[in-house]
Amino acid sequence: MEYRKILIKYGGNAMVNQELKEAIAQKIKTLQNHGVQVILVHGGGPFINKSLEDAGITSQFFDGHRHTSPEALSCIEKTLKGEVNSSLVNLLNREGLQAVGLSGKDGKLAIAQKRWHLARNEAGEESQVDLGQVGDVKVVNPLLLKILLDNGFTPVITCIASDEKGNDFNINGDVFAGKIAAAMEVDAYIVLTDVDGLYQDYPDPASILKEVNLKTIPQYYGKAIKGGMIPKIESCVAALEAGVKKAVILNGTQPDQISDYIINQRTIGTTITQ
Ligand SMILES: Nc1ncnc2c1ncn2[C@@H]1O[C@H](COP(=O)(O)OP(=O)(O)O)[C@@H](O)[C@H]1O
Ligand SMILES: CC(=O)N[C@@H](CCC(=O)OP(=O)(O)O)C(=O)O
C-alpha cells in the first residue's frame, strides 16, 4: 500500500538517548523525502518521572494512566513542552525538516474533557476512579495540522490539552495520538515503544503476536494487555474503528523498523487488524 500521510506516536520509553532520538529524526526526514507526510505525537513518561521525583511529587498509575494532581500537572506540562517537545523539534530541524512544536492547546487543535476511568479488579468488578487532572480527547480540529502538512511543516504534538473552559489536562500519549490519527484520516498509525510489539507472554519476545484482530482483543485484557499496553491497544482500536487503515506497534529503539515497515513494507511488530 502507498502511504501518503502517517502518524507516529513516539513513546518516552523509546527515547533512550540522544543518538536514538537523532536516528528517529533521520527516519522521519527519509519518509518525507519519499513523499510521506508525518505527524509526530509524543509522550515522555520517564522524563516526567524524573521531573516529578526532583520536585518531590509522587504519582501512581491506573491501567497506564498517571493520576495527576494540579501540582503534578504543572510539572508535567513544563517537562513535555519545555524539555521533550523542544528537543524533538530541534533534532528534526537539524535534519532539515521544518518542525512545529504544539500541544492540544495550540489553535485549539484538541479539546479535552475530564476522564472518568473505569477500573476492573481481578474479580471482574468495575469501579470509577477519579484520576484528577487526567483528560480524554473530546474533539480534534484538524485544520491547523492540515495547513502545516500542506505547507511542508512537520507537526510535533505533545499530549496536553484544555477543555472549553480552559482547564488543563494531562492525557495519556497513546490515547491522544489515536484520536489525532483518526481525525487526520492517516493511512497508518504507528506506535513506537521499547518492545517489538505485544507479547503473548511478556517479557518473552519470542511470544510476539504478529497480528491481533479487533474482535479477539477483549480476550487479551488482563493477560497480555497490561499496564502501558492498555492505552496503546485501546488507541489502535479507536483509530481503526474511526477508519484508519493500519495500526501497528513497532520498536522505537530500532529506528530501521520505521523505514522497513513504511518504505520496504516488511511485516514486523504487532499489527492490529480490522
Ligand atoms: N504483553 C506485553 N507485551 C509487551 N510489552 C508489555 C506487555 N505488557 C506490558 N508491557 C509493557 O508496556 C511497556 C510499553 O508501554 P509504556 O511503558 O507506556 O511505553 P511508552 O513510553 O512507549 O508509551 C513495555 O515496555 C512493557 O514493559
Ligand atoms: C495521563 C497520563 O498517563 N499521561 C502521561 C503523559 C505522557 C505519556 O503518555 O508518555 P509515554 O507516551 O512515554 O507513555 C504521563 O503522565 O505519563
What's this entry about, in short?
This protein has 274 residues and is α/β, with parallel strands linked by helices. Helix content is 33%, strand content 29%. The chain binds adenosine-5'-diphosphate and N-acetyl-L-glutamyl 5-phosphate.
Structural class comes to alpha/beta
Biggest sheet architecture = 8 strands, mixed
Radius of gyration: 17 Å
Q: How would you sum up the global shape?
A: globular
Number of helices: 7
CATH class: Alpha Beta
Uncertain stretches of 5 or more adjacent residues: none
Level of helix content?
A: 25-40%
Count structural domains.
1
Determine the CATH topology: Carbamate kinase
Termini separation comes to 16 Å
Trace the largest sheet across and list its strands. 5-8-2-1-11-13-14-12
Task: Lay out the secondary structure.
Blueprint: E1 5-10, H1 18-33, E2 37-42, H2 45-54, E3 61-62, E4 65-66, H3 70-94, E5 98-103, E6 110-120, E7 126-140, H4 143-150, E8 153-158, E9 160-162, E10 168-170, H5 173-183, E11 188-193, E12 211-213, H6 229-241, E13 246-251, H7 256-262, E14 270-273
Parallel strand pairs: 1-2, 1-11, 2-8, 5-8, 11-13, 12-14
Antiparallel strand pairs: 3-4, 6-7, 9-10, 13-14
The structure holds adenosine-5'-diphosphate and N-acetyl-L-glutamyl 5-phosphate.
